[in-house]
Design goal:
This protein is 59% helix and 5% strand. With 373 residues, the protein is mainly alpha-helical. α7 crosses α10 and α12 crosses α14.
Length: 373
């Protein structure tokens, strides 16, 4: 039985903070869908009748918004993230991955501050350096709360922001002071970059979105969220995007999140918002084999699944498409992920191609990872 410790994303970050396992399966409580659909899923799983479930999914009428994802291009959340990037880029204590991604965002979304306004801007950057850059966008409760509040603010006036009780008073004042500088020195270019990215992504979703939504629903045995939001910013975090609940934050100027890779990664992020049924099935099999849940296994599975499904969908329009994880060597960079990829190639990919049953695929993947003889 292979129980060797597996690496987490801190290896890729080049830092030592946040080294605990943040897998989605362990981080989130299992969400029980009490709708008729959700009850049907659990009943069908109990009876191990996957084909019946697929027929239910395919034949059932689906009611959702015209677009599967609502994209937002908000002023306040962009200012918030850009100040964080500026502060991070100037620190001397962050890991190389954090520094390089912050500097890359600033390079691709430059902002020239007039000399007369540098005192105000520098003060705001220093405030973020003191209060926020040591906190993680995804795993810190306060950062998620701020992200939600500022995302909802859109392009509201400073007066509206000042009355926003969800934000600390000192942060409100800093943002209002920096806003006057950011609005004329940076925002026109940043807003334009975000808008161009959103326009290109919407065009891809118009061609491929419905198919990918349907395929992900089938694989995850989950309904697509009724309201999935993606806030588009010039700097999201070191990874280029993150998701909690049904709120995605994604980077528009990251060179790795362009063209068809952007399509894959928006559906990668969306996968984090789907119900945990798929992970429950894998967890049950790991328990049956008396093996621990591998660290970051769920994220590896999301990476692989989104990549293969996108490649399948793009077979006609971009037959040479290389999934994000393969192109950047993600599975080779993180300890244990190369073993996951090998198991996915041998057992999970055939399921995604309709050549193996779901139950057999899950059993085979788990045995290949946990129980080598």
């Amino acid at each position: 039985m292979n129980t060797a410790p597996r690496g987490d994303l801190s290896e890729y970050l080049g830092k030592t903070k946040h080294t605990e396992d943040h897998s989605a399966y362990q981080r989130h409580p299992l969400r029980r869908d009490t709708s008729l659909f959700g009850i049907a899923v659990r009943l069908v799983r109990t009876r191990e009748s996957f084909l019946i479930l697929l027929l239910l999914i395919i034949s059932a009428p689906t009611v959702r918004a015209a677009e599967p994802i609502e994209f937002r291009n908000g002023f306040w959340i962009n200012l918030h993230h850009y100040l964080y990037a500026q502060a991070l880029a100037e620190t001397k204590t962050a890991g190389p991955r954090l520094l390089s991604t912050a500097n890359s965002a600033i390079q691709h979304a430059p902002c020239t501050i007039p000399g007369s306004e540098r005192v105000v801007w520098t003060s705001a950057v220093e405030f973020y350096a003191t209060h926020y850059i040591s906190k993680d966008w995804l795993f810190d409760d306060e950062m998620r709360q701020l992200n939600d509040a500022l995302g909802q603010m859109g392009d509201a006036t400073g007066k509206t922001l000042r009355s926003a009780s969800a934000l600390p008073e000192d942060l409100r004042e800093v943002l209002i002071g920096a806003a006057a500088v950011y609005r004329h020195a940076c925002w026109p270019a940043h807003h334009g970059a975000n808008a161009a990215w959103i326009g290109a992504e919407k065009a891809r979703l118009a061609k491929h979105g419905a198919t990918l939504v349907r395929r992900l629903e089938q694989v995850y045995l989950a309904k697509w969220p009724e309201h999935l939001i993606a806030d588009v910013v010039t700097y999201a975090n070191w990874a280029g995007a993150y998701t909690y609940g049904t709120h995605i934050t994604i980077d528009s100027v990251n060179s790795d999140y362009q063209e068809d890779s952007a399509l894959e990664m928006i559906f990668h992020e969306s996968s984090h918002a789907l119900d945990t049924t798929l992970f429950e099935e894998f967890a049950d099999e790991f328990k049956l084999q008396r093996a621990p849940w591998p660290r970051q296994f769920d994220h590896a599975l999301i990476f692989y699944t989104a990549g293969i499904l996108t490649k399948q969908e793009l077979a006609r329009t971009n037959p040479s498409y290389v999934p994000y994880g393969d192109r950047l060597g993600i599975f080779q960079r993180l300890q244990g992920w190369s073993e996951d990829e090998a198991a996915f190639d041998r057992a999970w990919k055939p399921y995604l191609e309709g050549k193996k049953t779901r139950k057999e695929a899950i059993q085979d993947v788990v045995k290949m990872i946990c129980c080598k003889e």
